Amino acid sequence: MTDLRTTPVDRARGQVLVLFALMLIVLLGIAALAIDISGAYAKLRYERAVADTAALSGASDTYRQGSAAVGTPEWNNARLHAMQNLVDELDPTYVPGDALPTCGVDSGPYPSDIVNCPIPGTPYYVSIYAPARTCVTIGGCDALRSVQVTVRTPKHGLSLARLFGQAEWNLPVTSVAERHRGSNYSFVTLRPPKPSRRNDPLCTPDCDANEDDIKLDGNGATLTVSGDMGTNTNMTLNADSTVSLDAGSFVDRYDTYKNWSGPPPDRQMPAPIPDPGYPIPAAPDPGLHPALQYTDPVAAHLSGADCTTEVGNIPAAYLVDPAEVATGQVVCLKPGRYAPSYPWSGPAYASVTTYVLTTFASSDPTYPSYGVYFLDGGFMPGSNTRVIGGYTSGAPGVGLVFLTTCSPACTFAGNAVDLLALNAGTAYPTGFGVAPTAAVNWDGTLVRTTGRVPRPMTLMVRPDPVCVVGPIEPDNSCSTRSPQLRLPGGGHIFVFFVQYAPTDNVTISGGSGSDGRLGQIWAWTVQYSGNYTNINLVGAQNPEPGVLRIATPCSPGAICDNPEAYAAIP
């Protein structure tokens, strides 16, 4: 008979076969998943590249020439160009000029956001938000100058993974691009915080005693700013005063709390704004350049004949009558260094109604034509007078330099003048026209800021080295010091270019006109006083396009508001 019993060896062989079969199935599953996962990652990388490119293409449209505003025209163009880019990348049959997907939009091009729009002939669905949905709802990117693009393959077919019940996967990728404009400051106050504790639920326990770096305390005062405002502390608005900014502009504040309610919109800065350290023109040395030093009116004035000729070159809009030179009502001043003892009062100025600040070509050929006034004794033209300079378009303008402080007072007491018009060129009195170029100093240097785009400067106060930007105010005397720049308000002021007074407590007061213009300000503090003062503060230059870049939100691992990426596809 045959022995049918199995031996231990036979049983072991059978177990090996079973284990091998089981392991083979596992290995096949792992291989299937590896193949399908690598394919999915490859698809996601492709979608990421396409979404990034389309988002950047759309975000490039979020810029309006010469304005910080962004609106419907820019967003419509952003959706259109993002879609063109998507179709060009995703549809191999697309030829430029072919019709784009309608995406359920009755009229175009794309007047509203696009959600899960199929690209015909492809497995892809796309969504386009302009501005980016995530930037609006969550933040972390520019809520005006951004575009959000989602590229989605909702039914990415699988191969070997089908053996395990996985037929398809949803593969979405979302990208956000923005035009990061940064800040185009028209107005900056540099005084740092001075924390104090008081019982205020708005900011307890660390309120800022310096929360009025920018202060409007006149009843009904209005400040209209073209560009952004920045303060290393806060802003205080009193007595129905208001601040109006361009669409898309902000007040950047360093304090953790907002000290005013309602508009204008604000942003908190992570760090204080530093003093840019613009160069102040060098004054001529009395010993080396005695001809440029003035201690009496006779030396500082152009002759009657020369002044009459100069007044003839002033645009008619300034209403300066050459006949008033002979009567002493119009005085033409020469640039140079005015000593602290300079007599601004007395017979020489008893009948003056108009001071003309000229650019002057010295009889000494070693000096160029220059236009910088070093007013060591201040400048006090008095009430019912007019001060004009820099009235020739396209020619070098004028610059005025004041000391930090002195005794007796040596301020620019211009708050009582009827008109202060400096470097306005033909832009006076409408605000539109051609301004001069940067002033030239006696040594031939240009009076302008540093940086990628140098800008001319008009009013300058030499900084106090004690008053520096930092975590807290370094010296209270910086805040209690009398202002060197006292400027008129409203339609009485047309001062263009940059006013650099980084440690001065600038004041602007009086006036009710609505057509005044004041260029960019850098100051320690700025106070607007006087009832119903209306000031238009214009930036030193037009807003720049900004930096086009992929924003952090919706990047791999970052937070993203994109519910359409997982919505059901019919």
Put simply, the count of helices is: 7
Stretches where pLDDT is under 50 for at least 5 consecutive residues are none
Structural class: alpha/beta
Shape: elongated
What is the total tally of β strands? 31
Distance between the termini: 71 Å
Q: Could you say how many structural domains there are in total?
A: 3
Q: State the helical fraction.
A: 10-25%
Percent of residues in beta strands: 25-35%
Secondary-structure map with pairings?
Layout: H1 8-59, H2 72-90, E1 114-118, E2 125-129, H3 133-137, E3 146-157, E4 168-180, E5 185-189, E6 195-196, E7 207-208, E8 214-216, E9 222-226, E10 228-231, E11 235-237, E12 242-245, E13 251-253, E14 266-268, E15 293-294, H4 297-300, H5 304-311, H6 323-326, E16 330-333, E17 336-338, E18 354-357, E19 372-375, E20 386-389, E21 399-402, E22 412-413, E23 419-422, E24 457-461, H7 477-480, E25 485-488, E26 493-495, E27 498-509, E28 517-518, E29 521-529, E30 534-538, E31 547-550
Helix pairs in contact: 1-2
What would you say this structure looks like, in words?
The chain is α/β, with parallel strands linked by helices. It folds into 3 domains: 24-181 and 548-562, no CATH class; 207-268, no CATH class; 290-538, no CATH class. The protein is 17% helix and 25% strand. It is built from 7 helices and 31 strands. The protein has helices spanning 8-59, 72-90, 133-137, 297-300, 304-311, 323-326, 477-480, and strands at residues 114-118, 125-129, 146-157, 168-180, 185-189, 195-196, 207-208, 214-216, 222-226, 228-231, 235-237, 242-245, 251-253, 266-268, 293-294, 330-333, 336-338, 354-357, 372-375, 386-389, 399-402, 412-413, 419-422, 457-461, 485-488, 493-495, 498-509, 517-518, 521-529, 534-538, 547-550. The strands form 4 sheets. The chain has a 15-stranded parallel β-sheet that branches. A hairpin with a 6-residue loop joins strand 1 and strand 2. Helix 1 (8-59) crosses helix 2 (72-90). The mean pLDDT is 86.
